[in-house]
## 1
Amino acid sequence: MQTVSSVAALREVIRQWRCEGRRIAFVPTMGNLHAGHYSLIETAKANADRVVASIYVNPTQFALGEDYGNYPRTLEADQRGLREQGCHLLFAPEDADVYPPEQHGPRASVDLGHLGTSLCGAFRPGHFAGVAQVCARLFHFVEPDVAVFGEKDYQQLLVIRALVQAFAFPLQIIGAPTGRSEEGLALSSRNQYLSDVERERALGVIQALRRAVAEIQQGLPIPEIEERGYHQLAELGFKPDYFAVRRALDLALVGPEDKDLRVLVAARLGKARLIDNLSAIRGKDVIAS
Amino acid sequence: MQTVSSVAALREVIRQWRCEGRRIAFVPTMGNLHAGHYSLIETAKANADRVVASIYVNPTQFALGEDYGNYPRTLEADQRGLREQGCHLLFAPEDADVYPPEQHGPRASVDLGHLGTSLCGAFRPGHFAGVAQVCARLFHFVEPDVAVFGEKDYQQLLVIRALVQAFAFPLQIIGAPTGRSEEGLALSSRNQYLSDVERERALGVIQALRRAVAEIQQGLPIPEIEERGYHQLAELGFKPDYFAVRRALDLALVGPEDKDLRVLVAARLGKARLIDNLSAIRGKDVIAS
């Protein structure tokens, strides 16, 4: 596996593959890779001939006071892991490669409407506009046929789908299931901010989500489910940002006809801000019975 | 010259040219082509091996009550003209090719900040977001090496530059000088809305612009110049939307240090809304003397 840091070097490899008729998959990451990322690489391999991963901790998606400076950077271990996983090319740029300093003139950004300002967007101002911008730039650097994003960051996945659809990026977005520990904890680089005791307690997240899914299937009222989930986590010592049930398609508030829902949570535990989500089909049990 | 209407057929031709190592230039238009457009094709030919033009009257850039329905559509004459001009491929899609009807899920749009809401943006709500969206889509359909835009639509040119820069579209934007009649009238499809008498009177636009340029070179105060230009046109029977002097780089208000300026005007005359602009260097005469 080759590692390149400049856009020019990246494009040279990609151009070669294009000429050979290769189908190219892309997995953008912020590094500090774990089994969750490696399952994205697996998905990428299953959908293409060549897999490009990127490692870049994008400053524009961190709000003031967040963990940009402390975000774990472990390039050598990541390179070993990607090589073992069969990734073909790693793009590991510096800030100046992604955002050349000579940029001037008027600015443009992505307006995501409600999708950009609700849920995590409400607690991380500018986060999703930053995500959309860096992904647009990375897509234009790599020009892949497919790109793989984890469902763990469900709102981000919808942001990327909205971006690609609105501007007709010539690539397919694949959402990959959330990697989890045996007990069900969603794999995340931020889990390492947890102490052993907190890590045990963090299982409360998946338990609360599973309970909400069951309650949605039973047709219980959404506001009750949201309140119960929120308080369940608060009682365990979390500081929840939100515990929300939304329409899966676009994270709009659930209307009376909506069946395909998503339960989403963000909650702080010690130094970590954990997010997770599950799919839920409303009234599934009611319909089945 | 071949004409294609589907994105798939377009991509097939482009793919072939890519394999042959051709450099590709793109000239997006709304059709009803005149010598101004053909000079963009000339610029495109000078910068590439293959020239793609598009003709598409994009509904999302027309505000309510504008001339979308009446906009002149003259495909056969345009095809003849493009062929004579040496254009290699015409992309003439239907609405369903550009905006496939199966689109659903959350929306995204381009936020252009002040650039999108000032000058023409103030009088044509949503216009520049629509321009940015359709150009992003067209760029992703054609994937050219360069795209050529006329300076006649100066604010549009800056919008496209902002779009390309923010999202790192892998293409170069070339601005081409405004095509003019011998008397100086900026060539525009909307000139045909003018009667013979109005056409004569329309020369007031370039006269007012030239006067403003001279006054800027002499170092006269900007607000005075703007007011004089506005009234000069109003006295000729125009209904001016604006007559403005701005910083050329980003159309911001002129600061004390700014030298590289642009004079821009939009004014209605009869059924036509005319726009035009000229470059002006502040204090040029003063410095030279």
Note: DSSP finds twelve helices and ten strands in chain B.
## 2
Amino acid sequence: MNSHIISNIAGLIGTIRETGPLIHHITNYVTVNDCANITLAIGASPIMADDIEEAQEITAISQALVINIGTLNKRTIGSMIAAGKRANEINIPVVLDPVGAGASMLRNKTVSGLLEQIKFSVIRGNMSEIRFIAGLSATTKGVDASETDLEGGTPNGIDTAKALANKLGCVIAITGATDIISNGKQTTCIENGHKMLGAVTGTGCMCSSLIGSSCGAVSDYFLAAASGILYMGIAGEIAFEYAGQKGNGSFHTAVIDEISKLNAETVHRRAKIYEA
Amino acid sequence: MNSHIISNIAGLIGTIRETGPLIHHITNYVTVNDCANITLAIGASPIMADDIEEAQEITAISQALVINIGTLNKRTIGSMIAAGKRANEINIPVVLDPVGAGASMLRNKTVSGLLEQIKFSVIRGNMSEIRFIAGLSATTKGVDASETDLEGGTPNGIDTAKALANKLGCVIAITGATDIISNGKQTTCIENGHKMLGAVTGTGCMCSSLIGSSCGAVSDYFLAAASGILYMGIAGEIAFEYAGQKGNGSFHTAVIDEISKLNAETVHRRAKIYEA
Amino acid sequence: MNSHIISNIAGLIGTIRETGPLIHHITNYVTVNDCANITLAIGASPIMADDIEEAQEITAISQALVINIGTLNKRTIGSMIAAGKRANEINIPVVLDPVGAGASMLRNKTVSGLLEQIKFSVIRGNMSEIRFIAGLSATTKGVDASETDLEGGTPNGIDTAKALANKLGCVIAITGATDIISNGKQTTCIENGHKMLGAVTGTGCMCSSLIGSSCGAVSDYFLAAASGILYMGIAGEIAFEYAGQKGNGSFHTAVIDEISKLNAETVHRRAKIYEA
């Protein structure tokens, strides 16, 4: 499987750059600039529109929708639901980034409402967020995964991802030291990336934007999820090699640089992906 | 005309840096940090305030107002109109950046409402956005100009800009591979810039902030529009020369660097501006 | 006093990095990404949540709350008050950044309301903002300190800070060419920093986030305020030394780099702090 999936992930970069899919984001105001720039860097085209009066219309001209609840507020929850429903109607993929799920009743209630009303193609979160969605006890520490949840480690994560993917009928992606992607039948792990990605805000959000960009260019959302995560991981690794010593700001810039320069050859050379 | 206008554009940098005009922005949350930083980099002072309870008051202490509809929402439309009217009353310039005009009914309706109620000094957009405002058929692709609209090319763009400038009594600026600025009587084209500017979000918005900063320092808004666009074009060119190979993130940083270091000598040496 | 306080400030960096306090921000959308990144860079963990339905709950899991009124709007004023009250109830520190106080009735009214209903641990602003809060005549120029207010200079600033600290029973920090920190009894001045910090938006906001991060790790808020300001000043100085010539964008990145690399040894070597 590995060499086959690596080839597909490597090849998808060219497809995104050639087709330039429009990716509608309803996202948070903390990392939105990075989300737009990473979307452009991989070759897709971002549009951010969150007012209820235009959300559905913008979704209708897009190739994928990314919903990110990072700075959730009542004004945009309705827009998320309306846009998600429209995406389902016209059969374009919807990616959910459940930032901070488990950290407040509002986030929990909203995630539940979104899951009830929208069919997602991919849900990407950290271990705490995904455990929360899976109905397991999660000990969220704000928007970062808690130590306790990480202690469970990869084996538990694989089971959680598989079970939740089967339950929701969508791809579940858990990002962390080892990333886990499952559609219930296939499950894959990625060991690219660098822990310094956790020292810059929005690397998770950007990863979701890369998944959205990939979903906008291919109909295999398992492949798309693995692609977005692998792209981010490789960019983080390379960025760390030459910019890590400079500090967080330079590393942040370097991550976007590396996504914009990423090519199939680098993916083939760097990919650390294996079937779980 | 060229050497005269180039001297004026070159000289305006010093005026902005000496007078430090306060530029009120009601703008989108995607690129707002870049808008503030580019305004500071050229020597003006940004203030972002979008609540209806303070918008007019902030406009009243400012030297120019920039209205950007990038992430339009119902909360701020009223603030845009109130601030614009106040700007008209006290006779300070108003710049409109009609981001994504043509992409949704909400944007179209809002642009129409703004044009009815506010007298703008400069409207800056891409070809699709300006064609939409001119009532021509435009095929918007989200917030970027469509290929189809660009095919029409410069000659059509000049006619569109002239006609619309005459109709609305304001300066029309169409940015693209060739930039076109017209006040109906005078029309000028600029061929500075680099296509990599399109790979970073907010370079259009930043250009509008530079136009706003220029408008806040000089009463000739045709000159101000040409200045803002030329500054951005030259910064983009220089940034590409040394940072383009590094990637999108470094290029983004370099554009802001170059605006902060821009001086009259560089404008004289680099300007590619001609009468249309 | 100096060597003692310097040792404490230097040592606090390690404490922040070891304890990783969660810092709840209700802040503006202009500089929010920088606030999150600087919080991570010093070793704390940011969470931005401004909806009234979750603000109190997020405060309740945090170690400090930062309220910044940079882009004030009616939707979030209630959230600020609710979160601040909850912080007071559970006895976690609250930092106020009264951005643009004096520039509009809305800001003035909101600051008054916040001061009436919330007990702050630290208020950090520029001279115009603090003079406004102190009830002195201030001539605000948007969100930057006015020349007139700065002419008063340090001696007046010290009196203002002391008197206001005693009146409000909290630490007052005035940042400028010389920074002044007072809790009414102790007053200290810092002469680190570089004027280029004023050419990048959000360096004041980031300073408040550093103060918040420090407050989340130590119970002496006078020390915390001095620490946040000294960290920012030293980072600005070092950043200027190697990135100042490159321009505003590179300097911006370098400031975040230097906070992420800051250590006790650098604080000991660079600190210019003296008792007033």
Note: Residues 189 and 274 of chain C are 5 Å apart (CA to CA).
## 3
Amino acid sequence: MAEKTRRPRAETPKGFRDYFGAEVTERKRMLDQIAAVYHRYGFDPLETSAVETVEALGKFLPDVDRPNEGVFAWADEDQDWLALRYDLTAPLARVAAQYRNDLPSPYRRYAMGPVWRNEKPGPGRFRQFYQCDADTVGSASVAADAEICAMLADALEEVGIPRGDYVVKVNNRKILNGVMEVAGLAGDDKEVERGIVLRAIDKIDRLGVEGVRALLGEGRKDESGDFTKGAGLSAEQADVVIGFTTARRDSGVATCARLRALVGASVTGADGVDELEAIAALLAAQGYGPDRIVIDPGVVRGLGYYTGPVYEAELTFKILDEKGRPRNFGSVAGGGRYDGLVKRFTGQDVPATGVSIGVDRLLAALRAKGRVAGSSQGPVVVTVMDRDRMADYMAMVGELRQAGIRAEVYLGNPKNFGNQLKYADKRASPIAVIQGGTEAAAGKVILKDLILGAKIAESATLEEWKDRPAQVEVPRADLAAAVRKMLGQ
Amino acid sequence: MAEKTRRPRAETPKGFRDYFGAEVTERKRMLDQIAAVYHRYGFDPLETSAVETVEALGKFLPDVDRPNEGVFAWADEDQDWLALRYDLTAPLARVAAQYRNDLPSPYRRYAMGPVWRNEKPGPGRFRQFYQCDADTVGSASVAADAEICAMLADALEEVGIPRGDYVVKVNNRKILNGVMEVAGLAGDDKEVERGIVLRAIDKIDRLGVEGVRALLGEGRKDESGDFTKGAGLSAEQADVVIGFTTARRDSGVATCARLRALVGASVTGADGVDELEAIAALLAAQGYGPDRIVIDPGVVRGLGYYTGPVYEAELTFKILDEKGRPRNFGSVAGGGRYDGLVKRFTGQDVPATGVSIGVDRLLAALRAKGRVAGSSQGPVVVTVMDRDRMADYMAMVGELRQAGIRAEVYLGNPKNFGNQLKYADKRASPIAVIQGGTEAAAGKVILKDLILGAKIAESATLEEWKDRPAQVEVPRADLAAAVRKMLGQ
């Protein structure tokens, strides 16, 4: 019996969170802006369900650096294991295979929505978060990759990241494979070494050349004394890799020339350089120069399934970290070509390329820059002076809404008027409407300007506010017009 | 090894589905319109995660008529059982308890998103579907119920259901409880009978008075010969219930008078009639007359947790069913007052009332009425006549997009030009842009009006199209302007 009457805990599950008010509208507005860009590029929306069969999701877990992370899965009653999707790419691959006879080919689609990861939650890391993807399935042309890069640049500008504050970096996995070949790491028995090399390259910004060289060789001890085992490359092998990571030059043409010198001996590598040059030429023809999109051999992308061009959007402005030090904001989106995901289902090669925007990081960047849109004013609050005249107050609020003004009547216990003003304050209400018996008899209402009132309360020099009354009495018939005027509409 | 190389099936899990293109944008547009109304009424958005602890969801499964339906649940690694939410009300109750010291009170919130039910899928019945709720937590006033009813009417009109094509019906569970008292069914030992009576009342529209009377008495055999056991009421008891179900009169005032005559002897029943009268008066003061909102004793609402006013929006126009017979479209939204859900967590009474709109049914209604918005035109398709000049084609498509025109370049294999036009057709493209070597040399492009072309192809009288060429040649420099003109922009 005691068990039965125990109260449940009112808690979000560990690693999950709730989003209130402006947190919801600001994200929604950003996603709407991105969707408008995707739409303009001819991409169609697709919404798959949150639930997929584990079989369809496969073993393509998202991040090689975190092999232990998993999915939320359960056994369905009569058949399969089901799971929550961990990204939007795996469901797209399933859709592209399932509807391959009905979809246009190439198929450009965008998708936005939550994904779920069954991983250890940490500060700022949640087990449900939004992704916002655009992919082209069925085109082997690098024009598809170039288009996604241009669209990514457009999307960033559309949401409020000005040109110069971001850069889209493009690289090609084939060049990386060429580097591995030239360095003698192409064999099936070198998979572990290749993994270490990839992760080392990915850390060049943070560790610098010497740190990466240590990881390519015997290993590296970090400041905390922890030792990371290296790839065990010889000095000559390491030189090839280091040469690659430092191959970026002032122009895309010069970078490509340097890359060709490094990996031109490998057929795969040369092919990768050809593709990069083609992408740069296609982008230049549309006016996307290196102020927006650059060739950068430093971009690796963690995902194992990429097979060709890879790209990443980085914000180039600095923000202050938790210790007040300026830091690069870093990556907010990334993607690349993955030609093997649909083949899992159909056995046939289906080329595909696409990008995923990290919604929460991009939103955080916009907030850091003070460029977030979608926040909205609190409602006008009609207070209740006389609970028997609720119908009158509801008529007022009805008129305000019909005039397009966000408004509500106070629905709590009206006995304590101070509580009503506290409520209006908590609602960030711009105006309180007040009508007691005296005003009602005189056919008047009082409008209290809560924004001005708050300023007056804060202000040291009361003088300047003297001739701007924070409270006015207006005829009841003029309610909506007077509120609109006070709102500055 | 054979196991390892078996291909996964490309299938949505049973009972789930994918939404493509216009299916996504039409629903989004409808939800945006509803959100705008909720916003105007002062409601704030709340987005909780899809996942809750089973403990927090509790045993309030949604529908007493389908007790076997359940949730998708799994055991978390180190702690609780987790589950996908089955509605948006249970998470709200959890939030209202968890943040009770921080939220404004009363707390008006709206929420939109998918919910999940682990039930047997059927035709048109899916295991993931959208809900769109608005609730006021912390107000015991019937003004809160009246406000939700008015807002529901506004929301229906906003999305495109004209006045006269819908009605919001209001009733009160207290009156039902009064009926039970008067009929001698109030005791704890009568729960089964009360359940049968409630379900019988709910079927009055379908079964008529005699059908309901049979269910109140011994039981009823339907056309298929299936027998449903009745509540076993005496003729006198059944008269009270039948009197209630037929209590609706031409005006709310007359209906309330009739209800008072029936259940006035019960304190609870009389209280319920008082509340209904108050709601009607509050709505009348805002101009919501019986053309929009009516008192209707026929409304029961299946959910067990309702404690006061209940309401339901019904569409009053007819649609043709699968056999071509005209049928009432029926209910698209419903809700009521539930004062016990937050108490589960806190032990304290927290009054609450709210509505849930059945998103898919409402969208189906709009489609049936031809009033759905949010569909969009396919993109202008720039075809590829010469694959070496892809940069030129991408420049064209870039110009079109910069002019705000939805446009894409054909990214498939360009060898077969017929395939490109088939693709444009599949994309519902209004215009194909064509530039071969001859046109390029002359500084021209060809615009093919695909909509006009399709009309000409269909038309019996070719004459009328004669002077409207479906294909024009324009200077390359005029591309965007000429496309805009052909689009009628």
Note: Chain B touches chain A through 99 residues (CB under 8 Å).
## 4
Amino acid sequence: MYIALDAMGGDNAPTSNVEGAIAFTKETGIGVYLVGDENVLKDLLEKLGGKNLPIEIVHAPEVIGMDEPPSIAVRKKRKSSMYIAAKLVREGKAQAFVSAGNTGAAMAVSKFVVGAAEGIERPGIAVAFPTKKGKPTILIDVGANVDCRPKHLVYFAVMGHTYFKEILKISDNPKIGILSIGEEEGKGNELVKDTYPLLKMTNLNFIGNAEGRDIFTGDFDVIVCDGFVGNVVLKTSESLGTIILEMIKEEVKKSFITKIGAMLMLPALKRFKKKADFAEYGGAPLLGTKGTCIITHGRADARAIKNALKVASQFEETHFNDKLKENIQTLLPDVLLNGKVA
Amino acid sequence: MYIALDAMGGDNAPTSNVEGAIAFTKETGIGVYLVGDENVLKDLLEKLGGKNLPIEIVHAPEVIGMDEPPSIAVRKKRKSSMYIAAKLVREGKAQAFVSAGNTGAAMAVSKFVVGAAEGIERPGIAVAFPTKKGKPTILIDVGANVDCRPKHLVYFAVMGHTYFKEILKISDNPKIGILSIGEEEGKGNELVKDTYPLLKMTNLNFIGNAEGRDIFTGDFDVIVCDGFVGNVVLKTSESLGTIILEMIKEEVKKSFITKIGAMLMLPALKRFKKKADFAEYGGAPLLGTKGTCIITHGRADARAIKNALKVASQFEETHFNDKLKENIQTLLPDVLLNGKVA
């Protein structure tokens, strides 16, 4: 197995990426293609002690900037580390693609360069949210698609189910919900109202509408939504978490006593931050693509890169795409399989 | 001026509601109709020293439960404190309606009993989010409407503009954004893409797409969105705030030192909570209704009720609906006024 790593993507690239790849390869023996500037990567690999490992450098002269629009990554900069890494998967040279670069661009490259798996119209990106119960809740889709149709949300549910069961291995029959406003059946917008009866027809463990507040309670294992809503929720949550801690810090600074208090409390805050850290879970997979695609946070450090590579290898080891294909056949009703629902 | 208060709505009703009404009337001299169980309210009013104030009790034998569907409030329980309070506005006996009861029901009653103002197709509920900059950012709509059309979002923008300028009085030309995914024009779903050019045609201070993270930065004054997305954002944010504090508390409990730290930090945490408290802003107005409708949090205490009554009186004193009507005429392009955009 070989994993193609976009070695130039992310705030801490390429150093953290190379460090992460070395740590991963040392631990697992699995091969990594480091895609990026050959000269830079060669020096780094040597310096960081990764010379005699199954790590191969693949040259890519361009880099996708963190603020460049996704269309550039797909249509123009075809010699970028991101594009070439994804192409290695499309060509069958690598089995998985990992990037900590520009999220929108990485999603677009995953969708259009790696491509959707057979039978999947719209791959969906899944993010693990930390919850009160300690185990994560998966929200899918958080931005790979907008203006979804009911059918897409049902497929997201099967993808989320398969991810929760095969990769996270927390439950064999994860509880599935659909993001809505109001708990009862019949509440929500048109998309939710049309998707609800379809989800009820599946063999999934569908337990009904989830509200915004249910994302963090842990009562649901997988919550499906349109990628527009999911992306707004993801960005709102990340930002609110950061701002709450910043606002508390501001208040702490106002007196000597509270400063001492904060110092004593620091270990608890650190433990909290670790638990709440989205990066801990090893990145967000784009489910339903031909090969495995893992998109990690731009802030990813070496440990997060290593985690992402590990998750990517798990997808391959568990034959995720085969399981997904199987689940689509066994969990979905005929009406969705025979193309009668558009 | 008289304000109709749903005296039985909210977790702390009727005591906090009566206390809040007394405090408000003492301070402003403005009259309040206390709508609810006559016997209970009469005793409470006497006990709490509100006898010789311009507070009148209006009997309502029923109460809308916190979990009852909105349809019950509008169609079935027409003798509820909420329904009768709203009816006082419709009949012109009161100028404003305030409720801390079941939010969905209060929205429905505001829309269908008080009714939309002339020229407004869809009233929108506005919520003030605390931001880093100290001043709030208004999100509208947070749940009164789903499956909005572009025209509705443009009207929400004018409502938000008028609210920010006339009631919050923070800026005369508030910065307006549209909630989307991605910053650049052209990013988002169909609704956003179709609304963007219309917003650009208005005389509003429209500054472009806002992402989920922009809600808390304070860079925007008013952000418009479909009520489905807004409601999910509101509930996600409220719940995440609570859960972060709970998770920190759990971690603090694990050692004696961190417990001491937390005790010393308490004043800072309290100041933070006060700043972040949605209730501080005096409830959320449903903008674009015939009379003023203010919906406050179910947890509202006497001070929050008093604040909500104050905000309601400000709407009347500033002739909010006249200003809104004026702004619609001066800020919107002809294409939106002549009915050419559906």
Note: Chain B has a mean pLDDT of 92.
